[in-house]
Design brief:
Length: 176
């Protein structure tokens, strides 16, 4: 299940080969048991399960939206309602916003599910993912190496099959 991309996952949901709840539970278990690489700063366990149950209902009713039930990892510089946005800086580890950033509002209208907030260099100001208060984000294919770019956690989440998709940012060309 973990190597499914977004389009394959949506196809499996529509075919009822996998339910959004089963997939969310699988991904959360994988993150809990296999993320020893500092990929996620915060995991949105409760939110992803609420969204998965809602998505499952939408599929049963035939009212699913474009990204219904797709868990997406979000870089921890994108403001999120109810979930800490830390900018990978310990001074902000309890900072919670009252509303989501515009990109999340648009994803929400398409039915996505936030999987969690991914590691970054502090304030996304760095060429690698090694300067974060939780520690460096490691390469999921070689844990002796770090990841490059401030979107390190988002890249590692997708490359390590912890999320079918992730949101990063590109201030200085890091994700290109």
């Amino acid at each position: 299940m973990d190597k499914l991309g977004v389009s394959d996952l949506l196809k499996k949901y529509k075919e009822k080969a996998i339910s959004p709840v089963e997939y969310a539970e699988y991904m959360l278990h994988k993150i809990k048991t296999q993320d020893d690489m500092n990929i996620f700063i915060n995991v949105a366990e409760e939110e992803v399960m609420v969204n998965a149950k809602e998505a499952e209902r939408h599929y049963m009713e035939g009212t699913q939206r474009a990204l219904e039930g797709v868990p997406i990892a979000i870089k921890d510089i994108v403001n999120t309602k109810g979930i800490p946005t830390t900018y990978a800086c310990a001074a902000y580890k309890n900072q919670i916003f009252d509303e989501d950033a515009t990109i999340l509002k648009k994803l929400d209208s398409a039915g996505y599910s936030m999987l969690g907030k991914t590691n970054t260099s502090q304030f996304a100001l760095g060429p690698t993912g090694e300067f974060s208060y939780i520690g460096p984000c490691k390469n999921p294919h070689d844990k002796t190496r770090i990841t490059g770019g401030s979107s390190s956690g988002s890249a590692a989440a997708v490359a390590g099959f912890f999320a079918p998709a992730a949101i990063g940012s590109d201030t200085g060309g890091s994700i290109r």
